[in-house]
Design brief:
Length: about 150
């Protein structure tokens, strides 16, 4: 989070833990995931909502393909909604076989490529409640109650 007037960094949020060497696979993992779009800001709840994509390589993490609610003052997660799990994909694995890295062998990572690529939308409903609306690349649209989200599937 940046100060809009000075550019000072208030806090940062990493989508996955730091990568460590997986001795069995001889590679570092997890390798994070993207945040494709701008967040939605909820000043009433002091919350920032972001959508994430898949992990770039296995091991997958509980934040991939998720909507994450972050505290606006600290950047600490309040809750995570993850529709599915086990999604790892990396475009470099589409290169000719001679150019593939150990992240793509013996077979490329797989998954549904079910990113939440569009920005989450904070909607004020006619019954006086709010909803976080989020569209997944699968075509599914989710309406999440920001005060009662349960983590996981």
């Amino acid at each position: 989070m940046l100060d809009p007037y000075t550019g000072k960094i208030f806090w940062t949020y990493n989508t996955s833990p730091d990568a460590t060497l997986d001795e069995k696979e001889k590679r570092y993992a997890p390798n994070g995931m993207s945040i494709w779009s701008e967040p939605a800001i909820d000043p009433a709840r002091g919350t920032v909502y972001v959508g994430t994509g898949q992990n770039y390589t296995p091991l997958t993490t509980p934040n991939e393909d998720s909507i994450i609610a972050l505290d606006i003052n600290t950047g600490k997660p309040k809750w995570v909604f993850q529709e599915g799990s086990g999604d790892a994909w990396n475009t470099s694995c589409q290169a000719p076989v001679a150019l593939l890295t150990k992240n793509c062998l013996p077979k490329p990572p797989g998954g549904g490529d079910l990113d939440f690529g569009a920005p989450p939308i904070l909607a004020h409903l006619s019954n006086g409640t709010d909803a976080v609306i989020a569209g997944e690349k699968s075509g599914m649209l989710f309406s999440l109650n920001p005060d009662a989200v349960k983590t996981g599937r």
